[in-house]
Structure formats: structure tokens, C-alpha cells
User: Fold these one by one.
Assistant:
Number 1:
Amino acid sequence: MRSMRAAAAAALIVSLTACGGATSGAGEDEPSSGAKGTVNLAINPWVGYEANAAVIAYLLEKKMGYTVEKKELKEEIAWQGFETGEVDAIVENWGHPDLKKTYIEDKKVAVEVGPTGNQGVIGWYVPEWMTQQYPDITDYKSLNKYANLFKTSESKGKGQFLAGDPSFVTNDEALVTNLKLNYTVVYSGSEAAIIKAAQQATAQKKPLLFYFYEPQWLFAQEKYVRVKLPAYSEGCDADLKKVACDYPDYVLDKIASKKFADTGGAAYQFIKNFTWTNDDQNLVSDYLTNQGMSADQAAEKWVNEHEATWKPWIPA
Amino acid sequence: MAPMIAVTDLWKVFGPRAGRIVGTPLADLPRAELRARTGCLAAVRDVSFDVEPGEVFVVMGLSGSGKSTLVRCLTRLIEPTSGEISIGGEPVRAMGPKRLRDLRRRQVAMVFQHFGLLPHRQVLDNVAYGLEIQGVPRAERHRKAGEVLALVGLDGHEHQYPDQLSGGMQQRVGLARALAADPEVLLFDEPFSALDPLIRRDMQAEVRRLHAEVGKTLVFITHDLAEALTLGDRIAVLRDGELVQVGTPEDLVGAPADSYVADFVRDVPRSDVLTLRWIMRDPGPDELCEDEPLSHRTVIRDAVHRVMRAERPIPVVDGDRRLGVIDADRMLAALVSHHRQVPA
Amino acid sequence: MTATSPPAVLRVTAAALVDATRRRGFWTRTVAAVLIVATVVAYLIFRTDGAADSDDAAAFRFFDSVRDWVDANRDTSPFFLYGVNYVRLGVRLLVDAVQAVLLGLGFAGLVAAVSAIGLVFAGWRTGLLAFGGFLAFGVLGLWEQSVDTLVLTVSAVLLSVLIGVPLGVLAARVRWVGATLRPVLDVMQIMPTFAYLAPMTLLFLIGEPAAVIATMIYAVPATIRITALGISEVPPTAVEAATALGSTRWQLLSKVRLPMARTTIVLAVNQTIMLALSMVVITALIDAPGLGQNIVNALQRVNVGAAFDAGVAIVILAVVLDRITTNAARRTRVHQNRRRRAIVAGGAIVAVIAAALITINPDRLPGYTFAEPVNDLVGWIELHWYDVTEGLKNGISAGILDPLETVLVTTPWWLFVLVVAAFGTLVSGWRAAGLAALAAAGIAGLGLWQHSMQTLATVLVAIALTMVIGVATGAFCARHDRLATAIRPVLDAAQTMPSFVYLLPAVALFGASRFTAIVAAVIFAVPPVVRLVERGLRDVPATVVEAATSAGSTPRQLLWKVQLPMARGGLLLAANQGIVMVLAMVVVGGLVGAGALGYDVVAGFSQRELFGEGLAAGLAIVLLGILLDRLTQGFHDSKGPRR
């Protein structure tokens, strides 16, 4: 199959030379058409996303006969994949109005494929024990008072605000500046690192102020409390440099490449139909993270127990 | 007969804008002064000589005398600054790149001090290299290379690599490589100076033998006087890029042109080099001589036996012409003295 | 301001500088002292409050606008339609072709092919090693990823050889080409891998072509340099002899120069492979498939065990490729029996074809994974060593790193530029100093002063630790032969390992912090430093050592008064090498909480609105590299080509 692809690409070069110029998507795999083909799923770096992808990939492969290629990509890079043809679908998208404008409206290489059914929340959190000891800590106005509690080797004498992966949707640095908080944003580098820090904060009663979000399996095990920032209002985050309000609630949705939408057939229809609850996702995330299951094992277990949920997704 | 190689007024000056030197008063400056004034080094200065077909012409000098530069100028491995060179009657300096390559491929071959063998090729392919780059088919060039290897006494070593051979054998490969294309002229650049003395002597004998067998024109560079005297029909002595003297070994030893040459030849055992011509005397009036004459070309040492045993002087002849006589007194004087002698 | 006050730190640095210049005589010493005093005074007068970098500098906006232009014109501008996009397409074809060959062989076929290559070119031991190594990929359950990594590496190496060998030949043969290439290669070699990625995605988007091109850019300087070295080392006598026989220029090249340089050229390929392998792993960040994905994935999940398997697979791949090429290079010097070799090669080809016909599913092999034991070990260390690791991290961060960072960040940029120029002139001459000062000014112009100084502080601490550990170990090795023999294979393995892998143990022990990056950088840079120091010490002439010993020196006096001063060249070369490597690693540390420029780069290619800043940060890293390299360059001028 690969050699056929090489031959096809060679033929392409010839034809391109004849008609002038190569576009950026030239030579890439055509996305799977009506025949059972390959679906390229982007895998963004947090476990909730992986849960969606695990179940979708499992059903596509085991129940529908497709091949699924999973690609570990950060959000922005996954969107670039629509343009190059390396990505067919993103199955949990957090907002990203700027990317939607670029890739859906301007370049017309991607399309929205509807909500996943999950409600997304992003916010600043502290472990529950801190709210008992410092009851007013959940108000951002008193954060400066407690800045000393949150000092670490990385926070340069200020309080530490622990953020996650640099690719996540964040306004934290702007918030710290605009709300005049005496804090330094420190990037842990990944979701796993935040979770680890959060677990330690609860277990060892260490102070921690951190970026976190739902759906998130950890909330099923331990309690974390959201710090109240100035309430979100439509458009208050329009200028990313001047944001001084909390994150909005997100309706998480799915995005597919235009080519996949046009030619993806049943696979595209299936992804379009996919929708489930935060509890469903948390359950699979828990399998993945805490039960030591592989993506396939976790998906298999969930699929076996929730036939009523997934049956309607599969196009007739 | 036209000379095989004719060199006229040859100059090679190294350094910045070397071309401006020749033909100006600067050219007359001594080497060191020229260097101080212009930063240029005159490696070869106004050299002229001819080499006859079949002759062994030796260029001798100390290191830095310009002899290696001179021999490289002959096939323009080093581009001369001015002067004329012709080989086989054809002016070399006027040749285009293609003709020059052809000259190097077919007419003039060279043997180097450090052999210059290709370590990644077997002996056979080293020897065949020159034929290979001329496009000679594989089977033919291997046959030819095999023949030449046999000629230099290396049969059986065809499939070895150069680093598996001793120095002397490596130079035999170098020699074979030069012979492979059957050139008219062979250039030797101090070919044996990197070898042990015993092996050197073998190799010199080899060259003499080959010269006798194949009869090429040889130009031979050396800093070793003994080697020059052994091999050379004529010897050119080079000092600081200039020719000091050109002549037969006897000329050099018997009649050095200046003190430089005299110094050079001082320790040469004269009886090994000079012929009877240099020590004979005129016969006395009515002097009685031996019947059997000696040729005037006889080297002194070879005549010792006869002369010392003879009761009377022995005539020295050139063919039928009697040039003089030699007797025991003369002989003894020649064997012990280091005085400069003048041919009669 | 915490702990030590800035002047105290300066005093330490001053002492070190005075020490470094001790041997340069009274005049230099006086100048150095005056400069140090002037620097301290100027700093105390002019120090700033170290304001945070704006996120809206002119440079960022410029790069953003470049990005927007490229985005808008990617499918319309002739530059892309007829240039860049074709390059991308061509590289894509190459990758596909290599992939088709390697996958076409199948599991059994590829294992057989690599073993056969090892056997024919490098001997039966290497063949066996290759066989076991490639089998291990299957056992580890990483067959596909390993093959993907191999495909990218082979493609990048092919490209590098295709481009690098001709350029190397030209550089050696044509004076102006060599003179033009040298500074370009200098910069390419000190450019940290990370800095390539954003511009790569801008031009070539994401995916295999961008990854292969980035890898090629990283690896090709070694190909060019070593090839040029090999060509220029061909003995002139052989060239002259061949010329005298009437060879054309082309015949000289193809029949004399290239064959005689082939050992060196094979070594060039060896270096190219090693560099390519370490870069290919990093290109996982721009969607290159393979083992790098596993490592990125494991980093994201802070799952050291999962990464360990991938790390082992990378090391195996590196060792197999290294052994095949080094032994092949060694073999080019040995003359082999042609017929026997032809028979072995023929047999090997038959065996490979036979094996290619067998279908073995590598997933069916008995599997083994290090994940659990390693994770258990990491858990145990976290539990029991927590206080130690935490104490070490906090101690160094608060005691050294923070004060140094404070001083650097609060130094006004113009003062920094002046100091670089002044001390640079003293240490490396005015040329190098001028270039370094220009680089420093450039960093200021990019609007990333604070981040650059933070990165610089981390680099300085890391290089100090590296030198202390490296020199101590090197000195020890130079004096204890048995230890040296024992440690050599460890150093060998460490040097074949791609830089990325070193992040994992550091993360496991120290979590996400600047100190983590320091630890990773130290692990990364110590092996070559140990080597250079050991070699420098061993190169001290035996007669001198003998003389000192007979004068009654104790071993300690011998080391401090004779060997170390005489090995100064080796030590300084080690420092220069170490700095370049440390910078590369500290920047990669941006992935694991080291922040500053490394973080900006990562953020730049993962957040659209930060693109310009990321690109500027990449440039700042390059400038920082030039600055550090030039400042230490005087140490080893005329030491010949590096690596």
C-alpha cells in the first residue's frame, strides 16, 4: 500500500509540474473515502480527550472495520494537521475561536461536527482542606494575603500558580497581571504533573493553587474548590492581553477536516453522532489512569457495559 | 639527433605576483635577498639543458636546491613561471589541458619519492591505473600490468595491497606503474631516498638493468652523489635553483666547475670514477710499451691489476689512435692523491 | 531579593575570572581587576527592577506578521508553489520510498537485513548485536515505532549524505566555498535543536517532511565537516602521482580522493546517524511518528516506566547503528578476501530474501516491559528520597540560581553588552568579543531580555556543575586506568543516547522545575567533558610528569601544579563543548518546567497567538549560543574542527 502511495505521489509530481506549482497538501494521503480506510485521529495531551478517542477508535476499529491512526499532537498542531491532511478529526475541542476562524472560515479546511456532550469548565482551584483552614481563600481578592503559603523554589519569592501544558487554553498570566496578584505562573508541563501536584497537596496538606478543569476523573476521588474570579461576561476575554475575568463554560465539540467530512462516509457520520456525558468520560479516564488499562482495554470495558449509549452512534 | 627533452631559460618563482620578477634586475638578486625584498622564492633560476634520447640524465643537488621543482615543471605538475620546455620536439608550455593530459598519460611517466600508491587498490590495479584512466579495457590493462610487474620482479604479488609490501617492493610497484603505459620518458624524483641502503643499491641495479632492457630516456633526481655517479650518463648539479655544472661523472669528479662542486665530489674515490685518460702521460721518446693496449674509457680501478703487474707502461688508446701511456708510478699517484687532475 | 546579595555573587565570579587570567601576566590581571570593579560599581548604580518581558514586542509582531503572510500565501505564492512545497513533496516521496522498503521486508526480513548488513560490513559480532537488538524492539512491543524512527533517521541521513558529501568535497577543494561554509556551519552546530522546530513548521508544516528536514539541518554540518576533513587529509603524494599519470579532475576525485577518504567519510556517516537519531526523537513535537512519540507521551503522563522502554529502544537503535558504522569504517582499512566477501554477501542476500517471505507478527513475540519495575523504583525513590531531592533542588535554586538570575535580570542590557565586550576581548580577542556583544545586543532587541537572562543563569549553574563533576571524574579516570576502562563503555553509551532521553530520570527525581533541566543538562554534558579532560591530562608529556615526580611532588601536587595547568587547553575545550551542550539541554528543559526561552519555544508552536514570541525565543537561543560559544572560543582557537 505504501509503495502504491509512493507511485501515486510520483505521478502527482509529474502532473503538478505539468499544471504548475504544488499546494501545501500535495502528496498527502487522501482521507479515507467510502471504502473502509484509515481515520487519523489527533490525540491532545489530556486524559479526558484520550477517553473520547479511545472509545471512538475502539468502535471504529472493532465494530465498523476501519483502521485508526492515533497522532499525539498538541491542539494548535492538530489543527495544522487539517491543512496538511495528516489529521481527520479532533474529538474534544475547547473553544479556540481563533483557530475556528482561521481553519474553518478563512482556509475552509475544517468543519464543526457538533458537541461531544461534555460540559467544559476551566478555573483556578485549591485543595479542599485549604478552604477549611482559610475560608476566604476562594475569593481572588484575598489571594495576595496568602501568597506566602504558595511560595516554591520556582516562584521567585511570590506565590506560585501552577499551570499545565503550555498548549492548554489559558489566560493565567494575563489574569495575574490584570488582577494585580502577587503570583508567578509556573508551568508544570503536563496534565499529569498538575494531577500529581494536586494529589500531593491533598495527601500531605501542602498549599497549592492550580489551573484545572472538568470533566476530570480526579474530582470523583478528591475534592478541589474553585477560586472565584470576577464573573465571566460575554466578550470580557476578547482581548487576551486585558482579560480580568474568569474562564467561560465551554461546550466541548468535535472538529473534522473538510476532506474527511466530504469523503469520510460512515466514519464521519459516526463521529458526528458521538455524544456522551461527563460521567461517561470520567469513567473511561479513570480506567485509563488508575486501573492501568490501555486505551483499547478501557474502551472495551466501557463499550461492553454501555451498549445502549453507543448503539445509536453507529450509522445504519 | 634532436634532443628528447630541451629546457631553455626555465624559471619558477613562488610567491605573490611571481611573474613580475623574471626579466627584471630583481631576477639577478641572490635568493635570500629576493625573498626579503619581494617575499618571492626563486626555486628554479634560468635553467637550460638538453636530454638526448636513451640518455640517463641525473639532476643532483642538496635539499632546497630546486631539483624537485625542476622535474615537476617538465610536465607542468608545477606551472613554470617562464622559459621553454619541449618534449619530443613539442613545446609543453603551449599544450592545452587535454594535450597535456595525453602527454602525461602516454609519453612521460614519473616515479615518486614517497611512491604515491593508492592504498585502496591491489598492486595490479595500481599498476593498471594509468591504463584505466585512458579507457583501456579491463582484461587488456590487467594483462599489460601483469607483464610489467614481471619485468620489475613482482610476479605473484598482483593481488596484494601496497601496505602489505616492503618499501622496496612498493617502489617497484611505482616503477611498474610508470612503465605500464610504455612512455618514452621516465622521470624519477628521488625514488630511492626513502629506502634502506641495501635495498637502494638493489633498486639502482634494477634501474640500470631496466634501462638496458627497455632503453627509455631517464631523468633522475637525487641528492645522493654516489647514486648520481652510478646511474648518470650526464649529471646536472643544481644549487639554489641554478645549474652549476652539467657533465659526465668524470667531468664532475675530474674537473669540478667551482668549489661547490669540488666540495661535493671531494670524497669520491677517484679511481672508481675517472678513466685512464685522466692519469695517462705522454709516452717518452722511443719508450717501450706493452703490446696489449687499454681503452681510454677504462676506469682506473679496473686497470690497477694490469698496470701494477706490467713491466712496461701500457699504451692507452682510443680505437686505433694512441693517446698516451700509463705506468705504475702514475697509477700509484692516482690511487693515493686527492689532487685535482687535469686531463692531458 | 533572597539569600545572598548580588555583590557577593559578583565577588565569586570576579574571583573565578581573576583566577582564569592568572597566567596572562600582570597587565591582564590589572585590567581584569579594574573591569570587575567597574562592572560591580556600574551594576550597583544602574541596576533595574528587572521588569517582565512584554508579550507584545516589535519582534513578536514581526514574526506574527510573517506567519500570517505565509499562512495566507502558502498555496498562492510562487515561493511556496514552486519552491518550498516541492521540497516538502520530494522529502515526502523519499520518506515513503524508505518506508516502503523497510516495511516491505516485514519483521523477519528487516531483522535479517540489518543483521546481514552488520555481518557483511562490520563482522559477525556486529551482525549478532544487530540481530539481538532488532529482535528486542519486538520483545519490547515497540516494533512499529522503532521502524518509524528508523525510517525517519535513514531518510534524514540519506539527505544529509546527498547534500553533505558534495558540499564537504567542495569545501575542501574550493577555497571560497570552504571559507563561506565555515561560519555557517559554526552557527548551525551551536544552534540548539529546539530552535529549529517553529521555523520548520512555518515553512514545511508538520509531519514527516518537516521532521526529516529539521533533522537534516541538525545533522548535515557533521557530514560536511568530516567529509571535508577526510578529503583534505588525502596524502598529496598520491594525488600528485595520479595527476602525473594524466588523471582528469573528475578521475582524481572519483578514483583517488573519494576512495582514499572513505574511512573518514564512513565516520562522517556515523556521526550523521547519531545526530540524526537524537533529533528525530525531538521532532515528535511536530508530529513525527516513532519512539519520540512514546517519550513525549510519557513525559506528558509523567510515566517514567513507559518512557523507559522507548528509551531502551532508542539506545539499542543507536548502539546498533553506531557499531555497524564504526566497525565498517574500521574495516575499510583492512583488506578482505574479495571472493569470500562476495560469497558471504550473496548468502546474506539470499537469507534476507528468504526471511522477507516469512511473515512473523512481532506482536506475537513474548513481550517484556520495564514499565512496572521502573515505576516501582521511581515510586520508592519519591517516597524515601523526597527530602533529599527536594532539599537539593531548593538549596541550589535558592542559594545559587535565584541570586544569579536576579543579578542578570536586573542588569541593564547595555551594561551587559559592555561587560561581554570587555571580558570577551580579554579572554577571546576583540573579533570574538565583538560578535558576542552583537549577539547580546540582538537578544535585547528581541524583547526577551528577562527570559534570556533566566535561561543564561540556568545555563551558567549547569555548566559550573558539569565542569566540577566532569573535571573531577576526568582527573580520576586519568589516574586510575582500571576505573577508566570500566567507565569507558558507560561514556560510549551515554554519548550515543539522544538528549531527549535524559529528561526522564531528571523529571522523575525532581518534578517540574529549573533544577530538573539543570540535572538533565549535567547528565547530558558530563560524558564528553570527562573524555576531553581525561585526554587532556593523559596528553601531558610523560617526561614532565617524571621530572615533577623525581623532584618529590606528591600525587596531589602533581595534579594541581603540573597536570591540570598543562592540560589547560583540554579543559577549556571541554568547557566550550560543555556550554554548547548544556544550552541545548536547558532549552529542551522548557518542556519540564524550566520555563524561560525553552518554554517560549514550546508555547510558540503550541499556541497560535504566541507564535511570534516563540520564534523570537528561538532566535534568542541561537544568539545566546553564539554569545557563549564566542566568549569561550578563544579557549580553543585553531584546535581544528569540532566533534
Number 2:
Amino acid sequence: MQKSLGETSTQKSLSLNTSTKAMRKRREILTIIGFMAPALIIYGVYVVYSIGMTFYYSLFEWSGIDNNFSFLGLDNYVRLLQDGVFWVSLGNNSLLLGASLLTQLPLGLIMALLLFSPVKGMRLFRSVYFMPFLMSTVAIGILFVFIYDGNFGLLNDLLGMVGLESLQQSWIGKESTAIWAVIATVCWQFAPFYMILFRAAIVGIPEELYEAANIDGAKPLQRFKNITLPLLMPIIITSAILSIIGSLKYFDLIYVMTMGGPNNSTELMATYMYKQTFTNFNMGYGSTVSFSMFIIAFIVTLFILIGERKRRGVE
Amino acid sequence: MIKKIRQMPLYLVAIILLLFTGLPFFIMINTSFKSQLEFMTSPWSLPDSFSFSNYALLLDTNFFSYFKNSLIVSVISVIIVIIFGAMASYPLARLKFKLNTPLFLLFMVGMMIPIHTTLIPIYLLTINLGLYDTIWALIGPYVAFALPISVVIFTQFMKEIPKELEESAKIDGCGHIRLFWRIIFPLLTPAVATVAIYNFIHIWNEFIFALVLTNSSENATLPLGLREYYGEFTVNVPAIMAALTLGSLPLLLIYFVAQEKIVKGLAAGSVKG
């Protein structure tokens, strides 16, 4: 009885097989489209289409406020390569990148390691260490403008207190110190961020490894070198990538603190692009600067991906 | 005793870092309670009498409007990102189709794109849509740039949900739509928390889109508002510090209430990305 029931149902499904399969396939495609369409449309319009349009605008001489387009082809890119300010800003982006890697990551690591040390009152330390990252960059920029101020800035005050009057100066008003003052501020803002990344990774290191090392009589520094550091390598690389990509996009702080000045000494690609587009009304050339940022970010990402793949291959 | 002496350097480093990170906050909050004269004569001392007059000054301005705008934009954007992001991740994580990997990569590349590359077209598009100088102009770009990391987080999370759950639901005659909303979505809570925290902080503090896509003071978000105070109060440093303190307060308060959650959410969000 049971067997015959089963047979009839398989026969039925066999005869229906081809049409249901096609229908099921079509329904699956509709499902995929239905689920992905909202995200794809928003992402497609605001990101993919916009990047294409930026390249398109970069081929024109256009103010952005009238309809006088004149087609230049790649002339804007030739102009860019000869534009001293662009090279200065690219140099500043590179300086920021190097300084970020060399200051934020080590500082973040030191903070994270301290959180696991037997220092009392660690909860308070941890809470305060992390606070800078929650402030908006605009607020940070304004706050530090007053700290660095030449007349009533509190940094000069502090230097006076410890007898370093000779160093007192207008930190962001001078070409030689402005970029370093900004870099210090960026470090203040982002070191806490790397601290929490490292902290999360250190939590994941098995306690037994340290216990075994203790039995072997390893000193703290040896434990750090032979256990902590190697196991943290993946997160250090992730952090380095985040820091590199972040450095190429930097804008807010410079805009608030220095506007790229004095005399372009703190100009970044993003601030230069903003100035060309919205202050000088060169939308065509501004697009050229911003599309170049995209190309540079793309090349850097490509290198990172290739490097990652090689590293994984070695392991 | 010996142990304590050996720990001295640790305490020293910990305290130096505490001063490094905390001193600017002390300066900001301390100054905000002072009069201008008091700030000029003794910038480091605690205020003679905690005066809220600088804060009272802010209440006569647009502060609440800035706050409201930031809140509306951030909450709506984050909700849209969660819904659309989770929906888009469902086929990417659970279904096999030809464009699966290319579409996932398309979203992933979005994380490295400098937003400035899209600024000019988005500015023109916003004008054409008639949204220029409204807070609604900001939601599109905020959602678009929050989607990549959110899709990556959701997709990775959904891949770990066991297939059996789905199969039993399918036998019960559950379609994809019901399956997603009834079974998968409720299981995403930890991923939703990560996505919400990570994106809320970034959107709340976002500056350049707000700067370019809005113009009038009544449509300004908090970061723009702070910059307006900076221009308006010029040398009245205590008033500016009061504005910065009040502007930073919401996130700091949330942080002190839900510290562990926020730190974990941020760490998870960044590493997955």
C-alpha cells in the first residue's frame, strides 16, 4: 500500500520535472533580484555610476555653475602631472600614511598590551584611552586649533611650565610645523581605534601558550616576541591596510584646522580636490583630481591584495 | 614590594598615555565652565564657580536643530542599511548563482573607494533630484557607503547559520521571503548590533557629504553646526568648548552605558572589513 503511493508520486514528479525545474529556476532568479535590488540600486547610483561620471567630467573644462562644457580629452591629466600643488598634496598624503603606520599602530599596541598588564584601575585607563575615537573629527579639529594656538594655546602654556619656552610657537600657523601638528592630532584620534582591534586579538590568544612559556622560564619580553607578536601579525596587517587606505582619504581634520595652509604646506589630495571644485569652481579639473585619488587607492589596494595572496601562499 | 617596584614603569607609561588621551578632554570640559576672563588669566585651574552660562548661550542657537537633524539622518540611514544590507546578503550567503562572487566583490571594493571620487556627481545628482539643502539628501550617500562593510559582515555571519534550519523550513512549504524574515533575520541579532554600532558612529560624525549637500543652518547636522559655532564665537573659547562638549556628549554617554558592546562592535566591524 505504502509502496504504491510512493510510486505514483514519483511518476507525477517525473512528468512535471522539466516545467517545474524551469519555473523553479525563474523563481530563484526573481528571488535573487528581489533581495538584492534595493541595495544594488542605491550602491549602483551613488557609488558605481558616480565614479564613472567623475571620470567623464574629468575630460572637460567645466565650471559646474553654467553649461559651458569644452571637451579636453586627457588634457586635465597632463595638467595634473605638471601641477606642483597636486604633487605637494600627494607627498603630504604619503607623509601622513608613513607617520600613521609608525605612530598609531605602535601606540595602539602599547595601549592594548597595557590593558592586559596587572596595572590597577585598568577600567578607568581603558575608558579614557578609547574616548578620542568617539569624538567627531570636526570637534577634534576645533579643539586642537585652540590647543596649538600661538597666543593663548595650552600646548605653549604646557611647554612654558616645563621650561621649554624656546619651543613655543604658533604650531599650525607655520609651514614647518603645521603638518606635524596635524599628524599628531590624527595619531591622537586613531591610536585608540587600533588599541581595540589589538585588544580583541589578544583576548583570542590561548592562555595555555603563556602558561607553557612560563614553565619554560620565558621572560616577559621573550613571551611577547615569541607568542604575542607572531599571533598578532594578521591583525597588525589588517590594521596597516586600514591605516593606509584611511590615509589616502583624509580630509575633515585638515579642512577644519588649516584648510591646507599655510601656503599649501598641509594640502592633501582631498582638500585640493575640494578647493578646485567648490572654491575655484573648476569642476572638470576637480574631477580629475578626485579620479586620480580613485586610481591611486585602486593601485594601492591591488598591491595589498597581491601581497596578501603571496603571504598566504607562503604560509 | 619588589613586584610593586617592578611594576612602576608600567604605571608610568599608563599614566603618560592617560594624560595624552585625557588631557584634551579635560581642557575642553574644564574651559567650557569658565568665563572668558577666567580662561585668559588661569587656563589650567578648575573654574571658580561652575557656570553654565556658556551652555545657556548654546540653547539660544540652533543646537537642538543640529542634534535633531543628526539623529534623524543617522537613525534612518542605519535602519535602511540593516534591512537592505541583510536582504542583499541573503542570496550572497545562501544561494548559488553565477554572479554571486562578482557581486560580493563589487560590494567589497566599495570599502577602499575614497568618497571624494563620488562627491561631484552626487552633488549634481542631489541638485537634480531637488534634494539639495535638505537632510534627506544625506541618506542616499550614507546608506551607499555603509553598505559594503555591512554586506560583508552579514554575508559572513549568514554563511555560518546551519543549512538544516532552512531545509526543515522549506519542507514546511516556506518560501524564501518568509524563510528570510521569519528564520534567518531573527538569528542575525549579533551582526545587526555590529552593523548598527559601526555605522551609527561613522554617520553621526560624518562631515564632507553634509558640508557639500546642505547649505542652510537649519539643515545642518551636528558636525556642521560645531563648525558654525567656531566661526560665530571666534575668540570666545569657553563658548566654543561648551559647544564641543555638548556635541560630543551623546556618543560619550552611549559609550559609558554600553562600553563593551560598542568596543566589540567596532572591533568586529573593522576586522571583518
